């Protein structure tokens, strides 16, 4: 009633002015509902309007202040995104992350199939989802110092995480800083990260391959260490090979080579029929000597210059693996001949060839990087082939290949060793049998295997079907051998035999 009376008491001038009348009505309503004067609300809105500007100002000031603190009170080390150290630091941070992390990056893990869900695992396309803690700045204590690690966000948004070959660790430049005038604590922290990462990989062989753009070496897989005694071939040759590599890696050998102006490099050729353990031996050697394996796939190397760059970027102590080297230039020459019969210009084939199987780099390009002037010293080169006779003699001459190792079909002794490895009482699969009994079974088993006839991979296939019981394996081996020998009348099998004999 009071307000109606007040409205009614408005002056004639106000009644004529609709704007003033509207304001006074709003003022009445506001004061009735919120006890506030509308003119005060206007001030509040005006103040609220200044908040974003004030916030931006505050951010600028804090950034400037942080910049000043960094410049005058922080020592820092920046690690490029593609450097292996970058991974080491990120791995350490992920392992020591706060327990209650709430912000993650989710991505499809292209490396592993889905675990646990059987139905999903049957679908070939199903991959696990990987959740990695999402962070751009991380504060942490290490060795009594406060550190801040910042990630370069520009790199982060460049899509590295959507690259299937990227496992989500590393790739963004990192800046590691700590309070103080000296960078020594930062260096100590980075060193600790590297030691941590090395401890994590000591039971694995890390296999590196070129990234999908062919620009840098990236870890492609890590394989559990494989002991050398799990690769069965001539024991004498194995001993000779291991002692040759041990001798080569001895630091005194490097000095001896250098003092005599000899290039410090060593090359090996593993040859033999398919499935005799050439790749397995390469991985086992890498594990035995604690070396990483750098895989070169010649057909996907675009040019000789790229091949040269790849060899220059491998570390001094590592194994460079060139698999099935015979297949590479054989296909190339076949493609060349085909083009020539088609009346095309064979000269163009060296680098820009449309034939998918043809390498884009040349044999002379490879010969150059293997022992050319700019070639990296200290690495071990392993080439594998099924057809050593088809290799260019320049590729396997001493200096490029210093030792040739034949891996052939399995002997009775190796078959016995394989049996013992499969059914060792330590594995718990033959709980009721002691070692002596398993050895007797191994003798019976080996007696059934014809000497140098089956590839070790074929025999491994047999074991895969009888892993649950050594007794079963022994009782089934006779029939299996008979069946496989009958198959030997197949043309393919004869080819393997012929290759072995040649
Ligand atoms: N000598 C061997 N000792 C133990 N296992 C072997 C041996 N040879 C092959 N195998 C087994 O057979 C499988 C294939 O072996 P691997 O790939 O090393 O042969 P490879 O000679 O490199 O074949 P390819 O020439 O076709 O590449 C592996 O699982 C490996 O464990």
UniProtKB/TrEMBL annotation:
Query: Pfam families in the record, alphabetically?
Result: AAA, AAA_lid_BCS1, BCS1_N
Compartments in which it is found: Mitochondrion inner membrane
Alphabetized, the UniProt keywords read:
ATP-binding, Hydrolase, Membrane, Mitochondrion, Mitochondrion inner membrane, Nucleotide-binding, Transmembrane, Transmembrane helix
Q: Does the keyword Mitochondrion apply?
A: yes
One GO MF annotation is:
ATP binding
- The segments labelled Disordered in the record are 336-358
Instruction: Give GO cellular component annotations, separated by semicolons.
Output: mitochondrial inner membrane
Membrane topology reported for the UniProt record: Single-pass membrane protein
| Residues in BCS1 N-terminal domain copies | 46-231
Superkingdom of origin: Eukaryota
Query: InterPro entries under this entry?
Result: AAA+_ATPase, AAA_lid_BCS1, ATPase_AAA_core, ATPase_AAA_CS, BCS1_N, Mitochondrial_chaperone_BCS1, P-loop_NTPase
What reaction does this catalyse? Answer: ATP + H2O = ADP + phosphate + H(+)
Where does the AAA+ ATPase domain start and stop, copy by copy? 264-411
Family membership:
Belongs to the AAA ATPase family. BCS1 subfamily.
Name of the protein: P-loop containing nucleoside triphosphate hydrolase protein
């Amino acid at each position: 009633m009071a307000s109606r009376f007040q409205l009614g008491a408005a002056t004639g001038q106000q009644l004529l002015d609709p704007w003033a009348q509207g304001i006074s009505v709003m003022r009445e309503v506001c004061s009735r509902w919120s006890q506030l004067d509308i003119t005060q609300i206007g001030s509040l809105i005006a103040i609220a309007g200044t908040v974003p500007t004030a916030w931006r100002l505050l951010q600028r000031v804090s950034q400037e202040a942080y910049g000043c603190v960094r410049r005058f009170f922080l020592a820092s080390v920046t690690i490029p995104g593609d450097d292996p150290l970058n991974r080491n630091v990120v791995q350490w941070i992920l392992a020591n992350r706060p327990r209650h992390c709430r912000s993650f990056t989710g991505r499809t893990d292209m490396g592993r199939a889905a675990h646990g869900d059987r139905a999903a695992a049957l679908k070939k396309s199903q991959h696990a989802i990987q959740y990695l803690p999402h962070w751009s700045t991380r504060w942490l204590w290490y060795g009594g110092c406060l550190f801040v690690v910042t990630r370069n966000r520009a790199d982060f948004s460049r899509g590295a995480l959507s690259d299937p070959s990227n496992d989500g660790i590393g790739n963004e430049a990192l800046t590691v800083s700590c309070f103080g005038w000296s960078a020594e604590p930062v260096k100590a922290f980075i060193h600790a990260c590297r030691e941590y990462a090395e401890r994590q990989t000591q039971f694995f062989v890390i296999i590196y391959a070129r990234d999908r753009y062919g620009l840098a070496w990236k870890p492609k897989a890590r394989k559990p260490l494989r002991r050398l005694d799990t690769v069965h071939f001539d024991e004498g040759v194995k001993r000779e090979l291991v002692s040759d590599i041990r001798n080569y890696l001895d630091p005194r050998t490097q000095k001896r080579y250098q003092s005599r102006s000899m290039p410090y490099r060593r090359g090996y050729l593993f040859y033999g029929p398919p499935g005799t353990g050439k790749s397995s031996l390469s991985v086992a050697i890498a594990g035995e000597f604690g070396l990483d394996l750098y895989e070169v796939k010649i057909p996907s190397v675009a040019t000789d210059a790229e091949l040269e760059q790849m060899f220059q970027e491998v570390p001094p102590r590592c194994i460079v693996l060139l698999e099935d080297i015979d297949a590479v230039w054989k296909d190339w020459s076949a493609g060349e001949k085909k083009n020539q019969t088609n009346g095309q210009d064979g000269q163009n084939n060296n680098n820009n060839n449309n034939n998918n199987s043809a390498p884009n780099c040349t044999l002379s390009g490879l010969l150059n990087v293997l022992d050319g002037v700019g070639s990296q010293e200290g690495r071990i080169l392993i080439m594998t082939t099924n057809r050593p006779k088809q290799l260019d003699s320049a590729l396997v001459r001493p200096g490029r290949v210093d030792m040739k190792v034949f891996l052939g079909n399995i002997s009775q002794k190796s078959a016995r060793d394989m049996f013992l490895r499969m059914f060792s009482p330590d594995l718990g699969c033959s709980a009721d049998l002691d070692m002596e009994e398993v050895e007797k079974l191994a003798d019976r088993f080996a007696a059934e295997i014809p000497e140098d006839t089956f590839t070790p991979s074929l025999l491994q296939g047999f074991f895969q079907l009888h892993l649950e019981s050594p007794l079963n394996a022994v009782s089934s081996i006779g029939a299996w051998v008979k069946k496989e020998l009958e198959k030997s009348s197949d043309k393919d099998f004869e080819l393997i035999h012929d290759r072995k004999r040649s």
